[in-house]
Amino acid sequence: MTIPHLARLPALAATLVLAGSAAWADTGIKTGDSSLGPVLTDGNGMTLYVFDRDEDGLPACYDQCAANWPPLVAAEGAAAEGEYGLVQRTDGTMQWTYDGKPLYLWINDKAPGDVTGDGVNGVWHVANPTDADEMTVLDEIEACIPALRRYAHALVRNRDAADDLVQDCLERAVAGRARWRGDGPVRAWLFRILLNRFRDGHRGADALRHLVVVDRPREPSGSGGQDERLALREVEEALKRLPSDQRTALLLVALEGMTIEEAAQVLGIPEGTLASRIARARVALRELTGRDGGTPRGRRELAG
């Protein structure tokens, strides 16, 4: 699993890799989405299949059958791991198996997510992962990393501190993923964890309100750069003066683009309460800066 967003977080990258199937990293086999639900795929996202006529874990698909249903051949030196095994074909190549069943592709699938081979002649079926739910959660956690880092940086205005906050959040999420029961989006669950860790690290509203900016955002370039710098600092200072409940709410909606419903889930408050907080925050920002954090320019300034 490659996590380019976490070049500065090697410990967390290792945590996510170890949390997933070890065979995933070695085999290139992944879990993908399809109209039939989670399915196993090759490294390119193409659906994998199993064949009812394979017996005792030995492949029975050769010649024209193998031309239509190419076996998933392992690279030289590959090793079996967990539910992922290897079986030798008659030509000496090694074919990947899952739970003892040889894995194949289907030539008529044209794009990731296609499952046109399921049910062919009543003997071909998509390969369903037994750990699909867990791998799907890990996939969604990884996909949320950029947004979590952006939001954390907007909260603490320090890249190292933001990375530490995200690492803490994701380590807890990975360790506690079994407790996520699908009651709402993974993204909302992750942002709740991050906010709770942030609040634990900054006790009291005064601490939240008076965070010191020790890492300046990137300086705008090009024409109007001086005006942009002044505007950014003005918004930055105004945000620090907002009450913590208004600030965290505004950033979820204006910076992360969450709906009122999503942000209310993250904060654990009624939608009406959230809407009121955001309205008060925007009024305060306009009074302090003449700008609204909900505008496109405001979002750029909030992101730093």
From TrEMBL:
Record's Pfam families? Lipoprotein_15, PhyR_sigma2, Sigma70_r4_2
Name a GO molecular-function annotation. Answer: DNA binding
Source organism of the structure: Rubellimicrobium mesophilum DSM 19309
**Which branch of life, at top level?**
Bacteria
Q: Tell me the protein's name.
A: RNA polymerase sigma-70 factor, ECF subfamily
Supply one GO BP term.
alkane catabolic process
Annotated ranges, domain RNA polymerase sigma factor 70 region 4 type: 233-285
Per UniProt, which keywords does this protein have? Signal
Q: Which PANTHER family match?
A: BLL4220 PROTEIN
Q: Where is the signal peptide?
A: 1-25
Record carries keyword Signal:
yes
Entry annotated with the keyword Isomerase:
no
